[in-house]
Each structure stands twice: as C-alpha cells, then as structure tokens.
Amino acid sequence: MEQNISDIVRARRTTRVIRVGDVAIGGDYPIVVQSMTNTDTRDIPGTVAQIHRLQEVGCEIIRVAVPDTASAQAISEIKKSISIPIIADIHFDWRLAVVSIEAGADCIRINPGNIGGWRNLARVVEKVKEYGVSMRVGVNAGSLEKDIRKKFGGPIPQALVESALRNIGLVVDMGCESIKISIKSSDVLNTVDAYRQLSRETDFPLHLGVTEAGGLIPGTVKSSVALAVLIMDGIGDTMRVSLTRDPVEEVRVAYEILRALKIRQRGPEIISCPTCGRCEIDLFSLASEVERRAQRIPYPLKLAVMGCIVNGPGEAREADIGLAGGKGVGLIFKGDRLLKKVPEQELLETFWAEVERLVEIERQKVEDK
C-alpha cells in the first residue's frame, strides 16, 4: 500500500518559542525560511534592493554581514525600508554585536568559538537582554574551539554538539534564553548526525543548514538531502539553504524542499518533463521563462509545462493551468478542460495570460476573507 509523505514525516519535536522581530520560531509555528544578503551591507540602497527581491519570493528573515562598524550602523537605515526582521552576522569582534543591536538588529548571530572568550560573550549577552532581542548561537565545523578540536581530533558530530552545549550553557547562565541554535558542517552526514544528537539534548529551536554547500546543483542536492532527512525526523524550526548563487535561489530551493515534504506550500508548483526525442517545441526556454515569471506568485497553484503527447495532456489536465506541446503548437488546459490550441510562437504569452487570470482570482479570494 502506498504511503503518503505526510504520514512518513514525524511530528515536530517540542521546542521553546522565541521571536526574531515579529516572527515566531519554534513550538507549533511553521518552519521559517531565511536567507542572507551577499551585498556590501554599507551599500544601503543595494542591500535594500536585494532584500526586497528576497521578500517577493517569500524570505521571512534576512541576515546581513557585519564586518565593520559602518556595516553595523547601516542596519538602522536598512530597517526603515524593509518589512522583515534583520539578523546581524557577527564574527571576531564583540563590539560589532553591540553596535548592531543598538542600530536595531532584531537578532544577532554569533559563533562563540571566535568571539574572543566568555568575557566578550558576556558583554554581548548583556546588550541582548537590555534590548530584548534574540540570539542565534552558531557552531560551524570550520571554527571549533581549539580544545574541543584537539579532544575529538576534528569537527566530528560529537565535537559540534559539545561546542554548542558548552556555549548555550554559558549564555543561559548569563540570564539569556531567547536563543536558537545552528550546528553546521559542509558534510551532509555529519550535519544530520550532529543535529540529531543536539535535538536530544536541548529544547531550544534549531536553525537548519549545510554550510558551504556549493553552487546551484551541488548545494541544492546537499541541502535537500540533509534538511529533508532532519525535517522528516521532526527536527528543525527555521532553515537556510546556502548556495554560491543569487540568494533568491536559496529561498526558492527552501520552499521546494518544504513543498515536496508537504510541510508548507508557497508559490506555484511547476511540473515539466525532461524532454525526449518526441518533443517538437523549445520546452527548455518555455519552462525556464515560466519558472522565472512564477517566482513572484505567492499562491500555491499547480502549473504544467509538458513537451509531447505521451504524458503531456494527462499532466496538463491535472494542473490548474497546463500546456502540452505538439509539432510547433501547444494545447492549453484549465483543469481537465481544453481551452485552446495555439502556435508555438504564441504559446508562452497565451499560457501566461491564463495564469494571470487565475492569480487575480486567488488574490481576490484572499482580499475577500
């Protein structure tokens, strides 16, 4: 008997609820999708423009690099022009965390292993408590404390977990519990093992990710494997897919992972065939353009872009709007109803006009609620 994916995914483990700005993380709240800008944070217009693009495709929290004081101070101006919470990414210099919080950061991300000792950590924690913001304690395989690396002989999962628990303990002892934790490696199996171990040791919410995952294809594969396995285990409260790519692609991949697991539905699901010798239209270009245009649609529609008569009409009929290609022509379907047959050169615009009509209907439904 075929088993539904939603039956395979285990119930989310119970975690504490914290807030990053107005976004709740943990508990029964949805898994939150994050990304990070790759602009120079001091370039306020450029950073804001990129965040707006990320907001359009569903990014719910954004992180910015803070390598110097000017970057930290820029957070104040950036916040005025965006509508999602902002996290300051801090390494090495505790004073940058303080300036970032004073500038309005909703959360700071620190790696206690490179912040310069517990005294500097204490200064950061005091500012976190004073402003009522949250903190992400991020442990990476590449920056473990020297004593832990020596003890375990390298960044194995147990070493990552010990580092995380040690640093969480320090922060909690200092009176701060608005914490989420990440524990990342570029190795998929080490990442999975580390998060599994950590989830048994703490009830703080966990931020999932595979660090330095690579470009679009290897990064997507590594992140999808690791994050899907963990989410199916009921582990994970927020996530970032790390890609050497435009961060918009990170958000798209994250939502596709959640969609495939039937955890969250955002934006259109696009069904398209891989093509074969039967395909007699330029399906590659057609599917690529449909994907590009669909990025900014927030509604969970199903669109089918099929290349030939074998599975094309059947798949197209199962979609909200679908097309099936023939020899220089295409059939456009709305559900199981054939709407029209059009020449290939008119296929994209005719198809997209039907999509836009459906989007307007969905938009009106939302407004009427």
Task: Tell me what the structure shows.
The protein is of the alpha/beta class and 369 residues long. It has two domains: 5-260, Dihydropteroate synthase-like (TIM Barrel); 269-368, Sulfite Reductase Hemoprotein, domain 1 (2-Layer Sandwich), CATH 3.30.413. It is 44% helix and 19% strand. It contains 13 helices and 15 strands. The protein has helices at residues 5-8, 44-56, 69-79, 94-102, 118-131, 146-152, 157-173, 188-199, 216-232, 247-260, 283-294, 312-318, 344-368, and strands spanning 18-20, 23-25, 32-36, 61-65, 86-90, 107-110, 134-140, 179-184, 207-208, 238-239, 269-272, 302-306, 321-325, 329-334, 337-343. The strands form three sheets. The protein has an eight-stranded parallel β-sheet. β11 (269-272), α11 (283-294) and β12 form a beta-alpha-beta unit. α3 (69-79) runs parallel beside α4, α4 (94-102) runs parallel beside α5 and α6 packs antiparallel against α7. The mean pLDDT is 89.
